[in-house]
Amino acid sequence: MNTYYVYLLTNPKRTVLYTGVTNDLARRLEEHIEHENGRRTFAGRYFCNLLVHWEEFHDINQAIAREKEIKGWRREKKDALVAINNPEWKELNGLIFGDI
């Protein structure tokens, strides 16, 4: 059974949010960190490489629908989503990479 992730990244000052979908969260986070050097992507330009929220799905269509739903939200609603499970907006990258 495949697992898909909808995730939210932010920058160090927590001023920008990036929403994405992937089937390999660790690999995708590494790509975001690497792309920061080239700054050709949205996440790279705004230094969005800090994971603050993710959701798991077993159906890619549900994951894509959720990503689109979240992307359509205003910033306040995205902030509230993060705050449900991560009220201090802690960086969660270590949970994915096994550092924590």
Automatic annotation (TrEMBL):
SUPFAM superfamilies on file: GIY-YIG endonuclease
InterPro entries: GIY-YIG_endonuc, GIY-YIG_endonuc_sf, UPF0213_domain
Organism superkingdom: Bacteria
Domain spans labelled GIY-YIG: 2-80
One Pfam family linked to the record: GIY-YIG
Family: Belongs to the UPF0213 family.
PANTHER family: BSL5627 PROTEIN, UPF0213 PROTEIN YHBQ
UniProt-recorded name of the protein: GIY-YIG nuclease family protein
Biological source species: Hymenobacter cyanobacteriorum
